[in-house]
Amino acid sequence: MTPEQIQRRIEAHIPEAQVEVEGGEGKFAARVVAPAFEGLSTLKRHQMVYAAVNDWIADGSLHALSIQALTPDEAN
Predict the structure, then answer these.
(1) Which pTM does this prediction carry?
(2) If you classify domain 3-75 with CATH, what class do you get?
(3) CA neighbours within 13 Å on the CB side: how many for 71?
(4) In a 3-state reduction of DSSP, which class is residue 49?
């Protein structure tokens, strides 16, 4: 599992997302900036990100993912 794989997966699941992922050995941190987060609670934003990688969490490929989920306005 690489940061790039996680980044591509999140970008494919969340329209117009700008994603940065770092980490390794099953433990990663993602910063996701997306217009789709507008008006959503932190919990709903995190659920959107987790939905993109849930199969990897379920099979043990991804052990931990720390998420910072922001709208474009919040990121500036």
Answers:
(1) 0.94
(2) alpha beta
(3) 11
(4) helix
